[in-house]
Amino acid sequence: MASFSNFQMIHFLLIFSSYLLIPTSSQSHSHQPHNHVAFFIFGDSLLDPGNNNYINATTLNQANFTPYGETFFKYPTGRFSDGRLVIMNLLTGPTLHLVGLVLWMRSIKNVVNLNTQLRYFKKVEKHLRQKLGDEESKKLLLDAVYFISIGGNDYISPLFRNYSVFYSHKQYLDMVMGNLTVVIEDIYQKGGRKFGFVNMGPLGCLPAMKAIKLQQGSSDECLEEATVLVKLHNTVLPEVLQGLKSKLKGFKYSIFDFYTTAKERMDNPSKYGFKEAKIACCGSGPYQGLYSCGGMRGTTEYELCSNVSENMFFDSFHPTERVYQQLAELAWSGSHNVIKPYNLKQLFEHGEVVVLSSWYDSGQFKWQNIRVRHQIMDGRQYAAELEL
Length: 388
What we know:
Blueprint: E1 16-23, E2 36-43, H1 86-91, E3 101-103, H2 114-132, H3 134-143, E4 145-148, H4 152-161, H5 169-189, E5 194-198, H6 207-215, H7 224-247, E6 252-256, H8 258-267, E7 282-283, E8 303-304, H9 321-333, E9 339-340, H10 344-348, E10 359-361, E11 366-368, E12 371-377, E13 380-387
Parallel strand pairs: 2-4, 4-5, 5-6
Antiparallel strand pairs: 1-2, 1-3, 6-9, 7-8, 10-11, 12-13
Helix pairs in contact: 2-3, 2-5, 4-7, 5-7
């Protein structure tokens, strides 16, 4: 059996960005689809559609093998779950359907930090100006919503790399928040005004973290050091955003409380339709916390549950599609106890996503056709499937 020290090589939040269009009541433009708002996503494995399939990443940073994808797609897509993730659940719900202009990013091993994502965004902004012209691209960026879900790797890495020798928790948090602030301000300078954020989930209580805690001989289930960093982050994030709001005219933000919504389901699984919230569906060892799902990460043997919909976690780090579906619904139209001061629907005002039939490859910097099957219903275009 592989040692849990291998976890220091596992960075489970994969970074990518997307560009989506959502209709609003704004005036139409000659090049843009009518009445749409752009949706730029800077994110992690809560959102990643499988970018690491196309780069030189190890299987530690990939999920393009069975049993990943078994529930919805019936084949592995590179998503770190049994099916759809947050954004795809959000955009294939009753009022929204998936479109995409995806930025390819590199794996965590050759980490694409938030500053690099910003650099790619600036390339997109430049290309939009060339394609749409200054006036239309400026309006697109001004009306857009910018959704950011990052930070998990920042708070897990110190647990394995002994960063505490050099930095206190506060110093480390200050660096993370400082980098995030710079990026927000740069996006603001390019026209960004509406931002959505996901706070840190209960990282210390993931099956992988519980397994490590058990190996350390502790009777406590959750890894407290991770929990301390997460709670500190979740306290400081709204303070930072409120500070930006006070100095950036027109700056709007919303924070989805991933910590509370996930922890509530961990503590009361049956209330939300789950039978198992501690043990992963796929993996091995205590809590199925050894990151061996699929048998492609150094340990060939693994166990797989018989009914994934009953589990909260699919593998050692990542939730099941059913969890993502519930989170997506809350992020879109939830009340102030889970997302505030606006939910995503309020940020967008109203509308449904329709297909933008192109995507952006940041490595080659070119536009390509995206393979989408769709149909027209009542004058509106719905995406039935997006093949990445």
